[in-house]
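Priority: medium. Attachment 1 of 2:
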């Protein structure tokens, strides 16, 4: 139980680790990472390329087995679940969205079939009517018109539309935690803010917890309540977004921020129109 609140964390990791390779060639992709996320909280994970962000995402999604440490969902140890039958109830609550939506779907499926897949995670067999309702309401949540997209294939959509389909797919089973690994990095600058605002809406509407992985400190600043900074597999700093990005303690965080001079000028204008304007200027100058 987290001392700061009466409710258990939505998700917690304790000394979560994953190595690749052996002997001299061992890579500590994720090394003893401990953190928690509460319901309705957005936690950003930042760090340079290769720092272990995606490995952490895959561990939490249980797509990859840890080599050490534990994962708790609502105080339940889920680390020992291995078979997909046992992981189904976990995946109903914890869903992921990834960087490249085109790589994440079978191009030969219709969008309807893509969206119906997670219905298998439900603890009951949904009626045809429930299936349709779940798929349609997920699409409406992400701002897509069901009649416009359901019978098309993924490749008939734009990158922005398809990433919204991927978010809708993640919503179909009604998750409580969303892991978004660089969900905007393949989108145009104008679409990025749309996707970020969609994530904010999901938190407001469903009190969903969101782990938002990005190498873009501006996006972390815009979206998150707390920030985790990873460096070579380790969590070197974590705290409220204003503290970590406003007054970084770790030398590595200071270096990351020094690479983004504009951030310093943003002050405390969190989530205002001014920040959005500032952010798009920043993106277009990048
Ligand atoms: N399947 C794998 N086999 C071997 N090494 C791996 C594997 N997956 C990741 N790694 C290594 O683990 C380290 C962390 O990689 P990871 O992809 O988690 O970083 P990242 O922070 O997501 O980087 P990026 O910002 O480029 O997406 C890297 O050194 C990477 O080469
Ligand atoms: Mg990655």
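Attachment 2 of 2:
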């Amino acid at each position: 139980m987290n001392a700061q609140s009466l409710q258990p964390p939505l998700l917690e990791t304790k000394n979560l680790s994953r190595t690749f390779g052996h002997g001299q060639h061992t890579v500590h992709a994720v090394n003893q990472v401990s953190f928690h996320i509460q319901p309705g909280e957005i936690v950003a994970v930042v760090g340079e390329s290769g720092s272990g962000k995606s490995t952490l995402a895959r561990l939490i999604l249980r797509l990859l087995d840890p080599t050490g440490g534990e994962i708790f969902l609502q105080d339940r140890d889920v680390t020992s679940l291995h078979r997909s039958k046992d992981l189904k109830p976990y995946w109903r609550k914890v869903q992921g969205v990834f960087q490249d939506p085109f790589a994440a779907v079978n191009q030969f499926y219709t969008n309807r079939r893509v969206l119906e897949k997670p219905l298998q995670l439900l603890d009951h067999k949904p009626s045809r009517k429930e299936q349709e309702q779940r798929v349609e309401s997920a699409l409406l949540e992400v701002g897509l018109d069901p009649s416009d997209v359901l019978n098309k294939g993924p490749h008939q959509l734009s990158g922005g539309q398809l990433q919204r389909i991927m978010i809708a797919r993640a919503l179909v089973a009604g998750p409580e935690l969303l892991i978004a690994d660089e969900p905007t990095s393949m989108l145009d600058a104008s679409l990025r803010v749309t996707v970020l605002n969609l994530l904010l809406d999901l938190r407001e509407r469903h009190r969903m917890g969101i782990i938002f992985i990005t190498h873009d400190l501006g996006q972390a600043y815009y979206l998150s309540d707390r920030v985790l900074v990873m460096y070579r597999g380790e969590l070197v700093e974590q705290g409220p977004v204003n503290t970590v990005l406003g007054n970084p303690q770790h030398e590595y965080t200071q270096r990351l921020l020094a690479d983004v001079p504009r951030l310093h000028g943003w002050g405390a204008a969190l989530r205002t129109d001014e920040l959005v304007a500032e952010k798009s200027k920043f993106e277009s100058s990048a």
